[in-house]
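Input/output pair, single chain:
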Amino acid sequence: MKDQILKVSPKYSLWEITLYYLKLGTWGFGGPVALVGYMQRDLVENKGWLTEEDYKEGLALAQLAPGSLAAQLGIYIGFVHYGLIGATLTGLAFVLPSFIMVVLLGMAYQLYGGLVWMQAVFYGVGAAVIGIIAVSSYKLTVKSISKFELPAMKAKWLLWLFYMAGIIITVITEREEILLFLACGILYMVIKAPPQWLKKPAVLPVGLLVSTGFFKYDGKTLQEIAWFFVKAGAFVFGSGLAIVPFLHGGVVKEFGWLNEHQFLDAVAVAMITPGPVVITVGFIGYLVAGFPGACVAALATFLPCYLFTVALAPSFKKIAKNTSIKAFVEGITAAVIGALVGSVIVIALRSIIDIPTILIATAAILALIYIKNLQEPYIIGIAAIIGILIKTL
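Output:
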């Protein structure tokens, strides 16, 4: 497929597509759904740089593989006409602006996090983030599993079972289990679309593995950060917010790098910055181990996404038709979204602490439901102002 793609003369230069993603990474607010929408509008409809088929193939690959949806689509589009160098430059250009922003915010957070005004800002922002994630969880549930209608739920009963298991296990254990995700994916694949090697046991199943203290850090912590965030990038499917429960289980529960409020602040930072939501890992890495920690966390998270995309892109036309792979991803996605809902419940129990925070979270939910084209940064900004007013008056 790569050879076929590269034979088509592109309507844009490597510099033009790189510059486009640099701008999108700088000004592209609204989360993964909005970002992939911008790409379709700009590159397919307005500029005519890509065909509708190229775009849909890239979107399908981004949905099938783990990692950041928007970042994967950007990497694939860079690959379409310019191969490995195009994928590398578009990926870096897309992620770099928001990475710089979260590092600067991390520096400010370390410097001013203890001040009253900063605490007041995140008092309001933390509650709003709960509302935003709750709405995103609902949208992900409807999009990835089914609508909340009895016939649709009956047809997808097994996915709903995985979804509920994800919620219950996350709420009880307050962490997310990779083995649960993999088990759901494998079970759904075996039931819905068993691969050929299962139908013919004599064939060996090859390839089954799924695979401001600016410089204040220690080597062991960096190794732990690298390994943990590689797993986050390799095993989390779906929207950027799907990584939240996995991060919460490791960053707060397993390693204790951040407390609950710091973690919620990290999610808030991802909401108020452009580019992929997953870039919150850079902020977390900075708080844990300074600038080296931010670099290691971001690189470890996006590397699996990059490798999956450039490895699968050349033969994706064939892979995309594999019903076993589609079933595997469906099963994993149901459990991951359930875990996201579970993490919302866990974090909300610690962050929604009084009547004002209840009202802020509720207002954020209602605003997202009833105000069309409302972007999350506006809600975050209003919540910050409300938090300051409540704490200072």
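Residues 115-392 form one domain. Residues 145 and 391 are 41 Å apart (CA to CA).
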